[in-house]
Structures are given as C-alpha cells and as structure tokens.
Specification:
835 residues; mainly alpha; 42 helices; 69% helix; elongated
C-alpha cells in the first residue's frame, strides 16, 4: 500500500473588532486567508505530494490490513428463488403470462433479455398484484446488476423498498443496496441497508452476511465499539458460520488499532492456533508476529512470521512477513532502530524487495533530519535500480528532502529536473513542488503563475483544486482581491464536491470584503453556514457575518449572529469580540440591564482590546439605571490606570451628590474632588465638595473649597450659603474670630429669613465654643422670637435649653423646654452640645 502523506494545514484567523460601524468597515478590509479544514486539502504551509506512485509498497503501520476479504463476496450470495410456473389453467391473465415469460428468461441466466421483459411487465400492468410487482422489481434489479447497469439496478431495488414495505423482497433488496453502497465506499448508506436487510432476510446465512458487512461499515465509519458489538454477536451465532473467524480477526484488529496490543495479541494467537480457515490462520500469525515485535518480543514475533511463511497459503502476506520487522519499526517511528537493522535485511532480501528496504532506510534518515544521508541512499537506489519504480520515486524524494530541509538549492534542482523533460505526470508533480516551495517562502507573486500553470495539468483533481485554491490565496496575499475572487469563483464552479469548498467560500467572502462587496461576502458566509454545518470555517463565517451586519447597521442581526457564535463555539477566540458587540447592540437599543453582562465578559476576556470601550458603556448604563454603588465601582475600576478626566463630569457629579445626601462623606469627597481639576467644574461642585469635607472633618480643605465657591458666586444668597458652610468649618477648626466674621456677614447679607436665622444660630454656636453659655442662650432664644421655622426654631430652643442647663438655671431651662414641647410636639429632642 502507498501511504498518503497529509498536506500541511493551517488557517490565518481574523479578529475584526471595531467601536462603530465605520470602524468595523475599516477593519474587515484585512485579508484573512483560510484553509480547507482537512489535512488532505490546502494548508498554510505548502502541500507536498511526497509519494505519488500508487503502486509503491511503502511501509504501513502494524497490524497490516488484510490483502483480501475472507468471507464470501456479497454478490455471490443467493437472494432469490424462482418458483416453478403455475399450471397452465391458471395462466389465463396476460400479466401472469408476461411475468412468467420474464421469470423464465431470468431463471435461465438470460439477464440481458429478461430486463426489458420485466420493464414491459411493470409499465404495462401497474395494477398487478403487489407480490408479483415486488418480485419483478427485485429481479429487474438483479438483471441490471448482472449486466453492469448499476444505476438502473439501484433504482429497481429502491422501488422495492419505497413501494412494498412488508414484502418478502425487502430484505434482499436492502442487501443489494447495501452491497452497492459498500462498493462505492458509502458506508453510511451501506450500514443503513445492511441493518435493514439483517432483520428482513429469511435466509440465516444471508442475514449473517448482512450483519457482518454492517460491522465492516461501522469500522469504516470509525465506530469501532459498535463494530465490536456486532462482531461479537456474529461470533456467538451457532451452526454453520463462515463469518465467525473473520469476525474474530476483525475484533482483534480493532483492539490492535486502539492500542490494546496485549489483548489483540492474545486474540491473534488464539486464531492462529484454532482457525479452520488457512487464510485466517496466515493473517493471524503475521499480525501476531508484528505485534510481538512491536511489544519488544522480537524472537517470538520472528517465530510466528517464519511459521506463516512456511504455510502454502501465505500468498500476499509473504512480502509483508519478510520485511514486517522493518515496516513495524518505520511505522512506529523507530527510525534509528530501523537504520541499525536495515543493512542485514537488505543483504538477505530478494532483489525485487531490496529497493523497498533502501527506501525505508532513506525515509528514516529523512525523518531523523539526516537529509544528506537520505540523499545518499536515494542516489544508491537511482544508481543500482534505475528501472525500478523506486528509482523514479528516489529522484523525486531527493527534491522533497531539499524541500523539507529548506535547502536553497531546491528551486535550481527542480529547474534542472524539469529541463530533462520528465513525463508529464512527473513534470506536473515537480512543478507543484516548486509552487509549494515558493509559497512556503512567502514569494506569493512568484508562486501565483506557477500555480496557474497547473490548471490543466495531469495532477489529480485534488491537487488541481489545491493549486487553484492556493492561487486565490496568493492573490489575496499580494493585495489583488479581484483576481482572488476570480480564481476562487472558478474553484467553486469546477470543484463543487471538494472538501475545500467551505474554505474556498470563506476565502472568497474575505476577498469580497476586501473589495467592499459586503452583499456578496455575506451571501458566501450564509451559504457556508447553511450548506456546511460541521466545518471549522463555520466559526469564522459566524464571526464575519456578525461584523458585516454591524457594518450595515443591522445591530439586531449582528447581535443574533454573535450569540449564535457563542452558543456553537463557547471557546471561540472571538468570544471577547462577540460579547462586546452583543453588549453594544443592547446598549444602542437602550436595554441597559441586558448590555452589562456581555460587556463585562468582553473586558474580562480581552482587557487590552475592550476594557476602555466596554467600561465606558457599563458606566453609562449604571448611570442611566441609577445604580449608585455599581456605578461607583465601575468608575473606580476605570480610573485605575486611566486619566481621571475620561469619566464624564455629570457621572462624577451625580455620584458625589448622591453620597453627600447619604452622608457618606468619604465617597462624596472622592468623586467631587475629581471635578476640581477639570474645566467642567462648577461653583456648586465646590459647594458640595466643601460640605463633604466638612462632614468628613477635613476643615482646612473645606475652608479652601468654600473659598473657591465664594470667589465664583457673588450674589448675596450664594454668598450667605457659602459663608454658612465656611463658618461651620471655622468653628470646628478653632478659628472662632473668623467664624464670627462669617456669621455677621451672613446676617448682613440676609437681614431676615432662614439664612439670617442660620447666621444667628452660627453666632450662638460660636459662643458655645467660647464657653459663653449665657450669651449663646440669649442668641438662640432670639431666633425663636424672629422666625417660626419647623426645623430652625425648635433646634434653637433645644440649644437654649441645653445652655441654660449648663448654667444651672433649671427654672428658665424648664420654661424653654415647655415652650419647645408645647409649640413643636412632633420635634424629636436630641443633644446638640457636649455634656
């Protein structure tokens, strides 16, 4: 078997973030090359067709797949028995006559003649008995199958399943359809048909065959656990069972494939001991030997390989057994061990196998990075075995070794190789290698025409698709999106079934974005999302679709696309971006509660990109919602490491005033203080800051702040209010003379009314501070005479009462208290002077 080397794969992802529709429009103009999402498709690092000769028996992993199937071929199983014709007296109806005629031809193996007679019967007698029409459809399918008309046969079998749900030919028709799907490697389809057949067939042997091949399908679909269950069911089936030993062999193979080497070895050795089928015994011995070698039991493994080689049924297993040890070493990556042993193996092998041993040795040196040594052995193959298939491969592998080692001599070597005019197939392969090398070096301008030259080459469709896709990629890298659109459009048209189709649609969509054709870009992304639900490009498509909708001012659509991205790809690299735009869309829609959580997630996931933009919106949301404490926390978070003039003045003013009203003077001062260095500061900001500083016992700062207020507000009312705060601060600071000046000025500015009373109250407080309780009491009682205010008057009377008590004048104090309680019964008396 030829081991297919996978193409190197990769993808350049895009992160298209923006703060507005205009910003998004600018960002999506960046090119985002994408790959095909499969390692047999187009990579970021170039593709290299390392082993183009399908006939070359290169090393394969142990255990080696069976060269031939052991069970009877499905097509040899008899699924239909033609009943003898009915007596003549019952053959009066014309439909029966036509059907018997067709059946007669069918019975005698005249499939080509029988087919049109069955067609005639089915077309002419649509109302014939269902059982007869069912048998006719099935036998029509059998006729077409025997003469090689697969499509017509398949159509006939499908008619049985579609039109006759309970008939006797349902099982056989399902079996035949399973057979066809299996041959076409449509294992999903084959599995469904085989399973249906296994429960609808009357012949136990054919039902067993259906079950066996359903297990084969499960293996092909990479469902080994389900396959094992089916194989074990077959193994447990009693009686004549030609599928028992192949099932045991398959179960052992599954164990080996999944690394359960010891269990697999036990199973293979058991088969080798008691199998009644020589071909199964040979395979079991070879595989047991290979696994023993892999498990470091080389002597036991060698003995089992020798035993297999001694059997006349060794057949296709002979070369595998002879060089199995080397193959296992190579497939296991034990390149050094292989190089230690290959010379002895080379000396003992037959001439036709010697080149393969050399190829394994050269490939091992290449895998170990010894490209010079690999080149020497490739040279030996070219010299000593010039007519072998391995010589041409060695010439090619020399170029591959130069490619892998990034040898600067590669391009000249390729040009020299091509100058010798190799056959077109090889010439095209090496031309592709040249394009890949230029691509790998980032020489996209040079690589583009080389890829373009391969459009009508002898390369397989897969490699031609690869070249055309890479051509579009090169155009993207060289800032030629119009040409990229052309190349990728050609790819989409010519290779609609390619595995790279999702990558091509994604790449073309990006090219459309580069040309500002957002409508076409969105169409490609939507097509990718609708037609290819499981591909990795879907993530990119959802992201770019969302961004395009945002550019088109469809915020609701953008949000929905990003939400879908997060549902399907919760760990996407674009999660921060998606959350940011979801939150921004909610903010734009004035859904302030809904916007906060995604914005918080965005800044947490990508602080560098989204912290500032997200936090600004969160601040605005909490401000609008009136959530003071959360708003304050966001402002504090934002101010940490950012210029404080970034937060809107109104936000700070609102926080300061709210905390001041709540008598949380420290927080009030913190936010109001941030306004004082900004142009937006107002006289009221200075007033509120002074009040916060007064409440926080920052008296010197309070006096300074209220001075700034008084400097900017000259009207009598404002001056009086400011002086009242200043007087309080002066008292607390012990500046009683200054406080008296402030009190007197208040009364001068406001000869009557509340502010006059508050000025007098301030004078009384100054006298208290001086210890002059008699003077203070008189001032407080005078206030009660000149104003009847529900707050000021009872407070003045209470203070007078306390002063009189301090003087020991309890009689007068009782009168004042009685006056207070009589006139203001609702007033709650509190102590305003220190005891």
């Amino acid at each position: 078997m030829v081991r297919k080397r996978a193409l190197y794969t990769g993808i350049l992802a895009a992160s298209l973030l923006a703060g507005s529709a205009a910003a998004r429009a600018q960002e999506v103009r960046r090119a985002i090359p994408v790959d095909g999402g499969d390692q047999d498709n187009i990579p970021t690092a170039p593709a290299v067709p390392l082993e183009p000769f399908e006939s070359q028996p290169t090393p394969t992993p142990a255990p080696v797949a069976s060269p031939t199937p052991h069970p009877p071929p499905v097509s040899n199983l008899k699924l239909d028995n033609i009943p003898p014709p009915a007596p003549a007296s019952t053959q009066q109806l014309p439909d029966k006559v036509q059907l018997d005629f067709a059946n007669g031809l069918y019975t005698h193996g005249q499939a080509e003649e029988a087919a049109p007679e069955y067609e005639k019967y089915l077309d002419t007698y649509p109302n014939a008995p269902a059982d007869d029409r069912e048998s006719a459809y099935f036998r029509l399918g059998e006729c077409y199958r025997k003469i090689g008309n697969v499509n017509s046969a398949k159509n006939a079998y499908e008619n049985v399943l579609l039109n006759f749900g309970l008939g006797p030919f349902i099982g056989p028709a399902a079996y035949r359809l399973g057979d066809m799907c299996y041959a076409a490697k449509d294992y999903d389809g084959a599995l469904n048909y085989y399973r249906k057949a296994s429960v609808r067939l009357n012949d136990p042997m054919v039902a067993l065959a259906a079950k066996f091949y359903s297990a084969r399908c499960l293996e092909a679909l990479n469902l080994p656990s389900e396959a094992r269950i089916t194989y074990e069911d077959i193994i447990d089936t009693k009686g004549d069972n030609p599928y028992r030993e192949p099932s045991r062999l398959a179960n052992a193979e599954i164990l080996s494939t999944f690394g359960r080497k010891e269990e697999a070895l036990t199973a293979f050795e058991s088969l080798a001991r008691d199998s009644q089928q020589p071909v199964v015994k040979v395979e079991a011995l070879v595989k047991a030997g290979l696994i023993n070698i892999d498990l470091n039991h080389p002597e036991k493994g060698a003995a089992e390989l020798d035993k297999a080689l001694a059997m006349p049924e060794i057949g296709d297993w002979k070369p595998i057994a002879q060089i199995g040890l080397l193959r296992v070493l190579y497939a296991s990556g034990k390149y050094k061990e292989l190089l230690d042993q290959y010379q002895d193996a080379f000396n003992s092998e037959t001439p036709d196998l010697k080149p393969e041993v050399l190829v394994m040795a050269a490939n091992s040196k290449r895998q170990l990075g010894d490209f010079s040594g690999a080149g020497d052995i490739y040279g030996q193959i070219i010299k000593d075995y010039p007519t072998s298939v391995f010589a041409d491969e060695a010439r090619y592998q020399q170029l591959v070794a130069l490619y892998i080692s990034d040898d600067p001599k590669l391009i000249p070597a390729i040009d020299a190789y091509l100058a010798n005019k190799p056959d077109p197939t090889k010439s095209d392969q090496v031309t592709l290698l040249k394009a890949e090398e230029l691509f790998k070096e980032g020489k996209y301008t040079d690589a583009a025409p080389v890829y373009a030259s391969l459009e009508n080459s002898t390369l397989t469709a897969s490699y031609r698709a690869n070249a055309l896709f890479k051509l579009g990629w090169c155009y993207m890298q060289t800032r030629q999106p119009d040409l990229a659109v052309g190349a990728l459009t050609k790819f989409v048209k010519e290779y609609p079934d390619s595995k790279m189709m999702p990558a091509a649609l994604a790449q073309r969509a990006v090219a459309y974005q580069e040309t500002k054709d957002l409508t076409s870009a969105l169409k490609d992304f939507n097509r990718l999302l609708d037609d290819y639900p499981g591909v990795k490009e879907r993530e990119l498509a959802l992201q770019q679709k969302a961004l395009i909708l945002g550019q088109q001012d469809d915020n609701a659509g953008m949000s929905q696309a990003f939400q879908q991205l997060l549902r399907e790809y919760p760990h996407t690299a674009a999660a921060a971006q998606a959350n940011y735009w979801i939150g921004s869309a909610a903010y734009s829609a004035k859904d302030y509660k809904a916007c906060i959580a995604p914005l918080e997630t965005a800044r947490k996931m990508d602080k560098a990109e989204f912290f500032e933009r997200a936090t600004v919106r969160i601040i605005a949301a909490y401000y609008t919602l009136g959530d003071r404490d959360k708003l304050a926390a966001e402002v504090d978070l934002y101010n940490n490491g950012h210029p404080k003039d970034k937060v809107q003045a109104e936000v700070l003013r609102s926080l300061g005033k709210s905390y001041l009203d709540a008598k949380d003077y420290a927080n009030a001062q913190k936010y109001l203080d941030q306004l004082t260095t900004r142009d937006e500061v107002t006289a009221d900001d200075w007033m509120n800051l002074a009040k916060a500083q007064l409440g926080g016992k920052q008296y010197a700062d309070c006096i300074n702040s209220i001075g700034r207020y008084l400097d900017s507000r000259k009207d009598p009312l404002s001056q009086a209010n400011g002086l009242l705060v200043m007087g309080r601060a002066q008292i607390e600071a012990g500046k009683l003379d200054d406080a008296q000046v402030s009190a007197d000025k208040i009364c001068s500015l406001q000869p009557e009314g509340q502010l006059n009373a508050q000025g007098r109250m301030l004078s009384g407080d100054i006298q208290v501070a001086r210890g002059k309780y008699d003077d203070a009491s008189k001032i407080y009682q005078s206030i009660a005479v000149i104003i009847d205010d529900p707050q000021i008057t009872p407070s003045a009377l209470e203070k007078a009462y306390e002063c009189l008590n301090r003087l020991g004048n309890t009689g007068e104090a009782s009168k004042v208290l009685n006056q207070l309680q009589t006139k203001y019964p609702e007033y709650q008396i509190k102590s305003s002077l220190a005891q």
